Amino acid sequence: MALTREQMAQRVACELKDGYYVNLGIGIPTLVANYIPDGMSIMFQSENGLLGMGQFPTEDEVDADMINAGKQTVTAIPGASIFSSAESFGMIRGGHVDLTVLGAFEIDVSGNIASWMIPGKLIKGMGGAMDLVAGADNIIVVMTHASKHGESKLLTECTLPLTGAGCIKKVLTDLAYLEIKDQKFWLKERAPGVSVEEIAEKTAGALVIPDHVPEMKFSV
């Protein structure tokens, strides 16, 4: 069975390490802040100028001026800092973010990512994605494996305008966790109840399948 948005965020949270500075993109990535492992200190960074982003607020905690890059209201943890977007992008471009979690429309076997534009459709814009993929070495893309029409989003070559070239090495979808190398997708884990056959059917790019593909775990 395909993962829910919350389960995808839980799996990404397993990649967090104590002391990490982490940038969360718009959409599913923002949910990762709700699943920090116990005893771990993480500083979430938002490109609009917040370092130390906390969980989404309860109704009593909502502050309309405290938002993330997706304009969702958020909280701030003790020790958080609020600053200009210029300083925030200096942090991103300077390579000071340990982990970046982004959504995408398409990924291909060359590690290219398309995440900011679909011709003819109204999209919020590229935001900080181009800076993030250029300034970060450790990036995880979180996305659905296929479109609502069943068309694969893991391709031989992206068809949409690129956000970045050759920068993606890890992809988590609602069906699987994969790594990209040697012009191929390498299947590392599958969602509980999802068959290798389904993953292969919905992956348009070259896919390497090991003899044993373990089911995904959602805790450290």
Automatic annotation (TrEMBL):
Belongs to the 3-oxoacid CoA-transferase subunit B family. This is CoA transferase subunit B. InterPro entries: 3-oxoacid_CoA-transf_B, CoA_trans_fam_I, CoA_transf_AS, NagB/RpiA_transferase-like. One of its GO terms (molecular function) is transferase activity. It comes from Sessilibacter corallicola. NCBIfam families: pcaJ_scoB_fam. It comes from the Bacteria. Keywords: Transferase. Pfam families: CoA_trans. PANTHER family: KETOACID-COENZYME A TRANSFERASE, SUCCINYL-COA:3-KETOACID COENZYME A TRANSFERASE SUBUNIT B-RELATED.
